[in-house]
Amino acid sequence: MGFAPLFIVLLLYFTGIPIAYALFGATMVYFGFMNTGSPAYLILQKFITSAQSFSLLAIPFFVMAGSIMNYAGISNKLMAFADVLTGHMPGALAQVNVLLSMLMGGVSGSANADAAMEAKMLVPEMERRGYDRGFSAAITAASSAVTPVIPPGINLIIYALIANVSVGKMFMAGYIPGIFMALCLMVVVHFISKKRGYMPTRDKIASPLEMGKQALDSIWAIFFPIGIIGGMRIGIFTPSECGAIAVLYCIVVGAFIYRELKPAHIAPILQETVEGTAGVVLIIVAANVFGQYMTWQGIPGMISKALLGVTSNKYAMLLIINAILLVVGMFMEGGAAMIILAPLLIPVVRTMGVDLVHFGLIIIVNIMIGGLTPPFGSMMFTVCSIIDCPIPDFVKEALPFIAALIVALLIVTYFPPLTLLIPNLVFGA
Fold it and tell me: Sign of torsion, CA 88 94 100 101?
């Protein structure tokens, strides 16, 4: 019976109840009817105190920064810069799609936001130039998987709060895996485009002068992630304070440099910020309350013993965990999967000596792959609904990109120095 709330969560989730309400409801069932030894008000206390975390301030600030940048014309500047770098390659618009998602990681930090933006901005032009709709949809969704891995992705913050690790270290750890995922996708795009005859948008590679000119024109957008690294490295601000600086920076750039941010944008920006923040924070709080049940019942310890009974080899264990996460990702939305599974798996990998920052990137890359797979892939549904692409066409075209991302996942999993290089340089080993 101690495991009943886990089944209640899954039952509620698969019947369409939002994950936050499913977690909170299952916890209340446990402490209200199954374990009556604890006063119910202690759970409500936990619900309130979970929201009183300084680290949570990073979420509304970065959500607002991403919203402001979308209205400030940053994405157009980044797309022009991406086109200068990759326009000469076969499948140029698909390459621009991937590179833009990588650059948007420092702007929006949301896979679904990036997928929706590029589906509206790039896919119509790709179709006009002869790209197959299924291919266009697949590369748009696959490239959006890169965006949340590069800071300031919200999943990086959520995992840091769940695992009680530094948000700054999670931010720094995301850069190399995110870039490597993009490179894997670009290689696949190259070979498919050569085979199908998807042409470049430029006759030849841009000259250094042209690249420099476009980089200068886009410098305020490009400088954003550099500023995040530099500011935290020299101790000017913490990751939470960095979010506030990011909002101020975006307002100045959008209103006074690019001059595309208008007073009329204030209302939609505030609405998007409140909606985005409320959803994420409610999930985090509900997950903390649900964690109280799991701790009380000793479930993480049971799961840890069960998995350690299968193998004591760290690398075999990581392979098993990857397989579990990939299968779960096919049936459950990525954020929900991370919130439920991370507290169960962290004791296992900690016992085996796996760095928790490194493990966080393994989980996040994994759940991003889940966003491309049926039946519950969120980026798949976002792109297909916007451009009216049949799901079977999408799945057929997405398979090579899913394979490329799995290769990237395995390299991230088994080469920890790749992930930990920047955090160790910035914060020390």
Answer: negative
Asked if 149 and 105 count as a contact pair (C-beta separation under 8 A), the reply is yes
CA dist 366 and 338 (Å) reads: 9
- Kindly give the interhelix angle for 167-196 and 416-427, rounded to the nearest 10 degrees: 140
- Which tokens belong to 239? 């990751």
- Closest CA relative to residue 133, chosen from 387, 421, 307, 375: 387
Average pLDDT value for residue range 392-405: 93
Query: Cα separation of 316 and 320, whole Å?
Result: 6
- CA dist 285 and 288 (Å) reads 5
- Summary mean pLDDT of the chain: 83
Which residues fall within 8 angstroms of residue 303, CB to CB, at 6 or more apart? 344, 345, 347, 348
- Residue 111: partners with Cβ closer than 8 Å, 6 or more residues away: 144, 145, 147, 148, 368, 371, 378, 379
Instruction: Check pLDDT > 90 for residue 419.
Output: yes
DSSP for 294-320, written as a single string = HHHHTHHHHHHHHHHHH---HHHHHHH
Question: Which tokens hold the place of 203?
Answer: 């006759």
Exposure on the CB side of residue 63, measured as CA atoms within 13 A = 23
**What's this model's pTM, rounded to 2 decimal places?**
0.78
